[in-house]
Specification:
By secondary structure, the protein is mainly α. Helix content is 72%, strand content 0%. It has 5 helices and no strands.
């Protein structure tokens, strides 16, 4: 069902005859398997991207830390990995 809709979308865009749209359609065709799988399984990497974003914010806020282990501990505590055994200080 989704595949048929995608092919119909390809046909509509190809009828427009705009160069940039053809490039976008070619990209979709190259990644068609992955695009269709994202609809079929509903799995995405949003959670990991959120962790990466929070880690980058912590890194910016910790600018000036002289020891890497303190930055690491701060990030681990922020992400609630409190079950790891480590000492601060």
């Amino acid at each position: 069902m989704v595949e048929k809709g995608l092919y119909a979308f390809y046909q509509k865009v190809e009828a427009i005859r705009v160069k940039e749209f053809h490039r976008a359609i070619q990209t979709l065709k190259n990644w068609q398997k992955e695009v269709l799988n994202s609809f079929a399984f509903g799995i995405n990497n949003g959670f990991i991207e959120g962790l990466n974003n929070q880690t980058k914010v912590n890194k910016r806020n910790a600018f000036g830390f002289r020891r890497y282990d303190r930055l690491l501990h701060r990030i681990l505590l922020h992400h609630q990995y409190k079950h790891y055994q480590f000492g601060v200080g």
